[in-house]
Write a structure and sequence with these properties.
454 residues; alpha+beta; 3-stranded antiparallel beta sheet; globular
C-alpha cells in the first residue's frame, strides 16, 4: 500500500493558542467558480464552437486526447479568468471547474502548456507538420468577429458608427517583424482595431514599419462589404483620428456612400483660414480669463494629395497657454450635423474607443504577443478578442439595466468570476457550492436568470 504523505504546510501567525497552517491539498475545489457563467454564455451563443470552425485540425482522430474546441475554450477561459500565460496552465489544468467548463467530467486533467503552445505556433517548415497539425484561417476568424457583432442585433439598425484606431504593442525580444517606431519610441507592433460601440469587429496585427492609415483601407473594405451583405439599409459612419484622413480611405467612403469624420492635421493654410475665429476667441479670453472656443467651416483641398475639395470643420480654441486650433474633415452634410455638434458630439465621442482598447490591453492581455512569429501572435490577439467578447456579452445581455452594466473587465473578473467553489460529484448530479458569505450572490442570480431566459 502506497503511503500517503501530507504536503508541506505554510505556518502563519497563531490565533491565540491555535496554530494556523495553510496547505494546497483541498479536494475538488476551485478559485474560479465564474467559469460556470462563461460556460453558460458560451453554450447559449455557441461562441467557441463557431470559432473552432475557423481552424483546420489535421490530427488523427483516434490519437486525440484534447479536442480542438476544448483547447480553444481552455485558452480563452484562461484569459477571462486572468491566466494570460501558457505557463499558468501547467497547474491550472488540474482545476475541476475548468474541466467542467470545457465539457469534461470534474477531475479530468486538461491540456498542458506544451499542447496549447503547439496549437498556437505556426507551420514554418515542412518538417513542422509532424508536430503542429492545427492551423487557423485568418480570414475566417476576421469574418467570425464581424458575424458575432451582426448577430447581436435582432433587426437591422438605422445607423452604426465604426471607430478605427491603431495602438502600440511593445516588443521585448527578437520577434518576427520587429521594428522601431519613432512616435512611440520603442520596438513594437501596431495592431489595428475597429469597434462599433463596445463591440469589437476588427483586431489585425501589423508591424511598425508602415503607416496604419495607409494599411486601414483593406480592413475597412472588408468590414463594409461584410456588414452590407447582411444589412443593406443601415447608415454607416466611419470615425478616426488624423492618421486616417487619407485620400484612398475618403475616396472609398464617398464612392460607396459611407459617411466619415476624421481628424485633420493642421497646417499654415488651415490656420490662416480660421484666423478671424482665433482672434475672436483670443479677445474673449482676454476679457473673461476663461477658455474660449469658436467653430468655423471651410472647403479645403490639399495641393497634391486630395482629388477634390472637402468640408473641414475647425475648432478655434484659445487657452491659458495660447491658441489650440483643431480640424476635422467630413462628407456629412452641414444640415445634418452643424459644425459645433459635429465636433463636440460626434467626433469627440470616439474617445470612448480608447477605453475599449485599454480594456483589451490591460485586462484581456492583448499585448502578450511574445512568440517569435507574427502568425502566432495574431492568434493570441484573436484569443484576447474572443475573451473580450465574453465580457461584452456579460455586460450587454445579463447586466444591462443594473449598476454593473458599465463595470470594467477587471471589476467583473475580481467580483463575479473569481469566486471559490467546491465541486461535489455523484452519479446523478454535479453540485457546485459557493461560500455562504459570497457578497455578490444576488448579482450571480441576476446573471443566471438572464442567461436562462435568453
Amino acid at each position: 500500500m502506497k503511503p500517503e504523505c501530507k504536503p508541506e504546510g505554510l505556518l502563519f501567525q497563531d490565533l491565540g493558542s491555535q496554530t494556523v497552517i495553510v496547505r494546497n491539498d483541498a479536494e475538488t475545489t476551485s478559485s474560479d467558480g465564474g467559469l460556470l457563467l462563461l460556460r453558460e454564455i458560451d453554450r447559449r451563443y455557441t461562441i467557441t464552437d463557431r470559432f473552432a470552425a475557423c481552424f483546420e485540425d489535421a490530427r488523427m482522430p483516434g490519437m486525440i486526447a484534447h479536442s480542438l474546441v476544448s483547447l480553444i475554450r481552455q485558452r480563452i477561459y484562461g484569459i477571462c479568468q486572468g491566466y494570460e500565460d501558457l505557463n499558468d496552465h501547467e497547474e491550472w489544468r488540474n482545476d475541476a471547474m475548468l474541466a467542467l467548463a470545457c465539457e469534461e467530467q470534474p477531475g479530468t486533467i486538461c491540456a498542458g502548456k506544451s499542447t496549447l503552445n503547439r496549437m498556437e505556433l505556426p507551420v514554418v517548415e515542412e518538417k513542422d507538420r509532424r508536430y503542429k497539425k492545427i492551423e487557423y484561417n485568418r480570414e475566417k476568424v476576421r469574418a467570425f468577429l464581424v458575424d458575432l457583432f451582426l448577430g447581436a442585433y435582432r433587426k437591422e439598425p438605422k445607423e452604426i458608427v465604426i471607430d478605427v484606431d491603431a495602438t502600440n504593442d511593445p516588443l521585448h525580444g527578437q520577434q518576427e517583424g520587429r521594428f522601431f517606431h519613432g512616435y512611440y519610441d520603442e520596438f513594437c507592433y501596431l495592431p489595428l482595431y475597429a469597434f462599433v460601440g463596445e463591440h469589437l469587429v476588427l483586431a489585425d496585427l501589423f508591424t511598425a514599419d508602415g503607416d496604419p492609415g495607409k494599411r486601414a483601407l483593406g480592413p475597412l473594405r472588408f468590414l463594409y462589404f461584410r456588414i452590407r451583405s447582411r444589412w443593406d439599409k443601415t447608415r454607416i459612419i466611419i470615425r478616426g483620428d488624423a492618421g486616417f484622413s487619407r485620400e484612398e480611405i475618403m475616396k472609398f467612403c464617398e464612392e460607396y456612400g459611407i459617411e466619415y469624420v476624421f481628424g485633420l492635421s493642421g497646417n499654415t493654410r488651415l490656420k490662416r483660414a480660421i484666423g478671424r475665429s482665433l482672434k475672436e476667441a483670443k479677445v474673449a479670453y482676454e476679457q473673461t480669463g476663461l477658455a474660449q472656443r469658436r467653430f468655423a467651416e471651410l472647403r479645403y483641398r490639399t495641393k497634391k494629395t486630395w482629388s477634390r475639395s472637402r468640408r473641414v470643420v475647425a475648432k478655434a480654441e484659445y487657452l491659458s497657454n495660447g491658441p489650440k486650433p483643431r480640424f476635422i474633415v467630413t462628407n456629412i452634410d452641414a444640415q445634418k450635423w452643424p459644425a459645433r455638434e459635429l465636433y463636440e458630439k460626434l467626433y469627440c465621442a470616439r474617445g470612448n474607443m480608447e477605453n475599449r482598447i485599454k480594456e483589451q490591453k490591460l485586462f484581456c492581455f492583448a499585448d502578450r504577443t511574445s512568440t517569435h512569429f507574427i502568425r502566432s501572435n495574431q492568434l493570441r490577439l484573436f484569443f484576447s478578442a474572443l475573451a473580450y467578447v465574453f465580457f461584452v456579452e456579460l455586460r450587454r445581455r445579463s447586466l444591462c439595466g443594473t449598476d454593473w452594466e458599465n463595470a470594467r473587465i477587471d471589476t467583473l473578473r475580481l467580483k463575479i468570476l473569481k469566486v471559490a467553489a467546491r465541486i461535489v460529484v455523484s452519479r446523478r448530479r454535479i453540485l457546485i457550492r459557493f461560500p455562504a458569505s459570497f457578497p455578490y450572490w444576488a448579482v450571480w442570480k441576476t446573471i443566471h436568470r438572464s442567461l436562462r431566459a435568453a
